[in-house]
């Protein structure tokens, strides 16, 4: 068991590294655009009348490239085509290349510097994560809790809850951004009801005491958490209730019924643990999936979190932040796998005996 | 589920097929449909007008003055042209990769001369350092093949780690959620429709590959495969003609689901403003305009309804096929 878990962790770690490397190496395709976008006055310089000449811009770009280390070759090997002869030449660059520097820095805990703001990537990711983690954590917790409640109810009386089931099926078909927009338009719209604020979390925290700040924060989080929970809920519930229904049809459940146990006791003490096993995998998938969901929700509600950071970094070609984000999500995935294995170990004695 | 009695199921089935047929038909005929306004020409006299208020704008206009109806029609075209080929390509790619991985596993062996030949030609074709070296290696492989062929000896052989390669690639793509991966890669690979199609295909083949591989592991052990092998049919032919058609069963239910997932992904991407160019009409982008103009409900409700009905239809199609399969012996 431990060996299998360690092997899976090693495989996933390798996969995360490979993905981050691919995204890093893809960055060469438009590194020019990245440099242009990273210049502080990229738009004004081209539009304004008093802007510097083309030569000025070229020197600025060259200086920026040197500062960010982009003048080095990208990888250990580089390929150049001779324009006259069309003869492809390969050059060995040694350890003095961008990829090597990046990987070595990563090993020492230095994740690089954002092209856009010049801050350390870890600082930006950490700030965004301190916002996203409460959001996704609350949503995951609520979704699992509701799924357990609803799943048990559905399994107990499958005929009586067809409306609930139909509602869950419809909700399952809705993309997250539709749910988020619908919530925003109905509950945070001055023309319908404005119970919750729509935007502007950062403006709220000036000149207030701690309690009202916390209240503001919670009020801003209600709609995003609701949207994430509503989209994560149907799959979990339908899955769990399906598994429970199957278990309740098996022989040991009939025996328990013959002993005179109530349906609730059968579910709680006999069937739930067996039905849990396939659901654990889904719950483990929930953590990385919610980070992806955070991309949508944070863009809709204009929250300064991880997903928004990634979307902005992708739009601005800020590759160090993008690669750092992928590494971080991969790490979340690793953690989820580890947790799932531990929970399997706890839930199923057969796995314990086999190991 | 009491709601899904057989009669209701048949009706919902017909409705789903009808709706999907209408969407595909509209998408195919979009350029020749007699629309009052083309999708990309803003009508600046009627900005954000409600449905049926301005002449010719039956479903109203969005905050930039573009006709909602024609954006819906051309958005359907974008969605169909993007998701259907991507789902089919991903299914084909996944079926081939997963089927091969399931049938041969890691055990199949290839004789060394062929390895040398393939490696050498690949080296030369990719123009890796010193291309001539590749040709030399390929020539050595060819020479060995001829030599051993003349002497009728058995070649030494090396195993091909087919299963490990396919499963490893699928795991790699599955570690990071698809949306994040596509967002990160769309930044580096540009925003054209073919580029996005390739990206969607490359990120969605792991699921069909896993399904087909699992089914193939089951099919491989069935008596008819053994009988075909015993009859002396070559392994490639057994794989292609006998085993693979049976291993494709799970794709019947997963293909509609895959299209539904891609539909959601495409509209999410264009809602986020990543992937497609701004002048390409799409449902997601139309829905995004409501954030600037919260009172223009028609710019949100109509595309959202189209999207949701399409996804529910695809889901019910998939469920119907799953139910059909359960009835089969």
Automatic annotation (TrEMBL), chain A:
It comes from Hymenobacter glacialis. GO terms for cellular component: plasma membrane. Belongs to the binding-protein-dependent transport system permease family. The chain crosses the membrane at residues 12-29, 131-151, 163-188, 275-301, 321-347. Residues 129-340 form the ABC transmembrane type-1 domain. It is a multi-pass membrane protein. This is ABC transmembrane type-1 domain-containing protein. Signal peptide: none annotated. One of its GO terms (biological process) is transmembrane transport. It holds the Pfam family BPD_transp_1. Keywords: Cell membrane, Membrane, Transmembrane, Transmembrane helix, Transport. It is found in: Cell membrane.
């Amino acid at each position: 068991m431990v060996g299998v878990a360690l092997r899976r962790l090693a495989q996933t770690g390798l996969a995360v590294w490979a993905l981050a490397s691919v995204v890093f190496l893809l960055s060469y395709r438009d590194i020019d655009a990245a440099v242009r976008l990273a210049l502080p006055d990229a738009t004004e310089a081209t539009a304004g009348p008093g802007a510097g000449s083309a030569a000025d811009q070229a020197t600025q770009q060259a200086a920026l490239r040197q500062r960010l280390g982009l003048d080095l070759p990208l990888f250990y090997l580089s390929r150049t085509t001779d324009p006259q002869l069309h003869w492809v030449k390969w050059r060995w660059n040694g350890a003095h290349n961008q990829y090597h520097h990046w990987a070595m820095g990563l090993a020492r805990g230095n994740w690089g510097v954002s092209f856009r703001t010049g801050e350390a990537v870890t600082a930006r990711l950490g700030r965004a994560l301190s916002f996203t983690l409460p959001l996704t954590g609350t949503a995951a917790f609520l979704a699992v809790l509701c799924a357990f409640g609803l799943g048990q109810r559905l399994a107990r009386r499958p005929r009586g809850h067809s409306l609930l089931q139909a509602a869950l099926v419809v909700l399952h078909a809705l993309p997250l951004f539709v749910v988020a927009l619908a919530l925003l338009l109905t509950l945070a719209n001055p023309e319908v009801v404005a119970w919750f604020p729509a935007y502007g979390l950062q403006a709220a925290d000036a000149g207030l005491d701690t309690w009202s700040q916390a209240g503001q924060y919670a009020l801003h989080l209600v709609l995003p958490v609701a949207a994430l929970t509503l989209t994560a809920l149907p799959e979990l519930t339908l899955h769990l209730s399906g598994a429970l229904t199957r278990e309740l049809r098996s022989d040991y459940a009939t025996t328990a019924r013959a002993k005179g146990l109530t349906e609730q006791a059968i579910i709680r003490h006999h069937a739930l643990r067996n039905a849990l096993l396939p659901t654990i995998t889904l719950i483990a998938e929930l953590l990385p999936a919610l980070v992806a969901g955070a991309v949508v929700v944070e863009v809709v509600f204009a929250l300064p979190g991880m997903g928004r950071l990634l979307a902005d970094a992708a739009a601005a070609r800020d590759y160090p932040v993008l690669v750092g984000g992928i590494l971080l999500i991969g790490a979340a995935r690793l953690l989820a796998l580890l947790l799932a294995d531990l929970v399997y170990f706890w839930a199923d004695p057969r796995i314990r005996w086999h190991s | 589920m009491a709601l899904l009695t057989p009669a209701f199921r048949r009706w919902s089935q017909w409705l789903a097929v009808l709706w999907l047929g209408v969407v595909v038909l509209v998408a195919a005929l979009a350029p020749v449909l007699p629309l009052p306004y083309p999708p990309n020409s803003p009508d600046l006299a009627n900005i954000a007008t409600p449905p049926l208020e301005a002449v010719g704008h039956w479903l109203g206009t969005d905050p930039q003055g573009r006709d909602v109806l024609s954006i819906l029609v051309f958005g359907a075209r974008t969605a169909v042209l993007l998701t259907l080929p991507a789902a089919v390509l991903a299914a084909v790619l996944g079926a081939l990769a997963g089927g091969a991985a399931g049938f041969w596993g890691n055990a199949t062996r290839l004789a060394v001369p062929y390895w040398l030949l393939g490696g050498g030609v690949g080296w030369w074709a990719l123009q890796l350092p010193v291309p001539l070296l590749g040709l030399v290696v390929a020539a050595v492989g060819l020479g060995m093949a001829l030599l051993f062929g003349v002497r009728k000896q058995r070649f030494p052989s090396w195993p091909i780690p087919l299963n490990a390669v396919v499963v490893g690639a699928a795991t790699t793509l599955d570690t990071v959620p698809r949306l994040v991966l596509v967002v990160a890669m769309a930044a580096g690979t540009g925003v054209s429709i073919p580029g996005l199609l390739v990206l969607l295909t490359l990120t969605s083949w792991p699921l069909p590959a896993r399904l087909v591989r699992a089914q193939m592991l089951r099919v491989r052990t069935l008596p008819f495969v053994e009988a075909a092998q015993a009859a002396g049919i070559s392994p490639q032919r057994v794989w292609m003609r006998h085993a693979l058609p049976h291993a494709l069963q799970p794709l019947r239910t997963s293909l509609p689901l895959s299209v539904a997932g891609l539909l959601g992904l495409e509209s999410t991407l264009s809602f986020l403003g990543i992937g497609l160019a701004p002048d390409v009409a799409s449902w997601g982008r139309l829905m995004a305009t409501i954030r600037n103009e919260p009172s223009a409900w028609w710019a949100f409700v109509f595309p959202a309804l189209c999207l949701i009905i399409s996804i529910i239809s695809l889901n019910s199609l998939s469920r119907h096929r799953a139910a059909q399969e359960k009835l089969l012996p």
